[in-house]
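Before we proceed, please read the two lines closing this message. Tell me what the token row says about the fold.
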Amino acid sequence: MLIVAVLEVLLIIGLPLGEFTMGGKHKVLPPMYRCFAASSILAQLFGAAMILQGGGHMNMWFAPNVIKIICFVFAVFFAVNTIMNLFSFSKKEKYVMTPLAAIEAVCFAVTAFGM
């Protein structure tokens, strides 16, 4: 998740890495897409905190049942994201971001089922 968050920061500051995200339509993300990248950073960091809490590696912010539900929601989100990335026209997004999204989906599902 940290890898994706760092990528999003690099996209926000204007590096030409847009082919790794949002269908790969833009080498440099336009301003509106940079807002989406910023929200993605927040989601990635929140998700990382939830998975660490669910795995018992961080103090709980929420009740265990709430964290379990959040982990299931993230697992479904990243499973759908994996499928969407598979159909991307961008080869960079397809071959780099698809496996990352799949790994995130599996990690969240394992954490949720393990709680």
Residues 2-114 form one domain.
